[in-house]
Design a protein that fits this description.
This protein is α/β, with parallel strands linked by helices. The protein has 6 helices and 6 strands; from the N terminus they run H-H-H-E-H-E-E-H-E-E-H-E. The protein has 2 domains: about 70 residues, no CATH class; about 110 residues, RlpA-like domain (Barwin-like endoglucanases, Beta Barrel). Strands 1-5-2-4-3-6 form a 6-stranded mixed barrel.
C-alpha cells in the first residue's frame, strides 16, 4: 500500500484564507452568544404580556434583579412589564376626587382682604392660625356657623372652586360667608350677594 504524506498532498492555507476562516468562527460565536439571551428575553416578555406567568417579580411586585438584567433597562419603563402592579396609576397621574354635597343653603356672601381695618393687627393670620398671605391662594373663607376645616363651594360666584373655613367674622354675622381675596378692588366688586352655598366632602 502506498503511503500518502499529508504535508505533500494537502495545499497549505494562505494567510488570507486563515484570516477569513478566523473571522467566520468569531462571527458564529458572536451570533450564538448574543442571539440566545435575546430569545430568552423575548420569551419572558411574551409570557409577561400574555399574563401566562408571573415570574421575575419579588413579593413587593418589583422586578427581580436577574430578570431586569436580562430584559435590559427598558424593563423598568415599559408599562407592559409592571407585573402585579399593572393596575397602579403612573406617577404624577391626576386623580379626580369625588365630591359629595352634604348640605346646601342660601347665605349672604361678602369678601375681605388682609387689611388691619378689616381684620386686626395680624391681618394675614386667620382665627385658626393660618397665614393666608404666605398661602397666597384664594381658597379661605370666614364663617361663624361652620367648623374650621369645613369645605365649601359657591357655584354661582366661583364655579367648582373649593373653599376652606379658616377664619371667623364678627359675632353679629351668624349666617354670612366672607371670602378672603388678595385684591381690594375685586373684593369691592363682589359686594354683598345672597347665593346658595354647598357644604361638601372631598373623597380623594
Amino acid at each position: 500500500m502506498k503511503k500518502i504524506k499529508i504535508s505533500e498532498d494537502l495545499v497549505p492555507l494562505s494567510r488570507r484564507q486563515q484570516t477569513v476562516i478566523n473571522l467566520i468562527i468569531v462571527c458564529v460565536f458572536q451570533f450564538l452568544l448574543f442571539f440566545v439571551p435575546v430569545l430568552a428575553a423575548e420569551a419572558v416578555t411574551n409570557d409577561l404580556n400574555n399574563n401566562e406567568v408571573n415570574i421575575g417579580f419579588n413579593s413587593k411586585g418589583a422586578l427581580d434583579p436577574s430578570v431586569a438584567a436580562l430584559l435590559g433597562e427598558d424593563a423598568f419603563t415599559n408599562s407592559s412589564l409592571i407585573g402585579p402592579q399593572n393596575n397602579a396609576l403612573p406617577i404624577n397621574a391626576e386623580r379626580n376626587p369625588e365630591i359629595i354635597v352634604i348640605s346646601t343653603s342660601i347665605r349672604t356672601v361678602t369678601a375681605y382682604n388682609s387689611l388691619p381695618e378689616q381684620t386686626d393687627d395680624t391681618p394675614c393670620i386667620t382665627a385658626n392660625g393660618f397665614n393666608v398671605c404666605e398661602h397666597d391662594i384664594e381658597d379661605t373663607i370666614a364663617a361663624n356657623f361652620l367648623k374650621f376645616g369645613t369645605k365649601v363651594r359657591i357655584p354661582e360666584l366661583f364655579g367648582d372652586r373649593i373653599f376652606i373655613v379658616r377664619d371667623r367674622m364678627n359675632q353679629r354675622f351668624s349666617d354670612r360667608v366672607d371670602v378672603w381675596m388678595k385684591d381690594y378692588e375685586e373684593a369691592r366688586k363682589l359686594g354683598k350677594q345672597n347665593v346658595q352655598i354647598e357644604v361638601i366632602e372631598v373623597i380623594e
